[in-house]
Amino acid sequence: MFGISDPGIWLAYLLEILCLVFGAWYGIKYWNQDDDIDSSRQAADILKPKTSKSTKSANKPTHN
User: Fold this and answer.
1) Which phi and psi angles does 62 have, rounded to 5°?
2) CA dihedral in degrees (37, 42, 48, 50; nearest 10)?
């Protein structure tokens, strides 16, 4: 029934369960790690002086 006697089907079910367990473990382990990195990047970006591309190009000398 459903081809369960075939070893390939057993292997597919086993891999599906392993992927499910790995995905749950990975999600729980790394749930909030990126939040800490992003907040430190945002703090560093706030401290940097802002320069726009238009002011940089306006200061270039022109050759006529």
Assistant:
1) -100, 140
2) 140
pTM of the model: 0.48
Helix (H), strand (E), coil (C) string for 5-21: CCHHHHHHHHHHHHHHH
Give the type of residue at 48: K
Question: 63 phi and psi, to 5 degrees?
Answer: -105, 120
Query: How many angstroms separate the Cα of 11 from the Cα of each of 4, 25, 28, 38, 59?
Result: 10, 21, 26, 40, 66
Return the amino acid letter for 29.
Answer: K
User: How do residues 18-47 score in pLDDT, each as one tens digit?
Assistant: 999 999 999 999 887 776 666 667 666 777
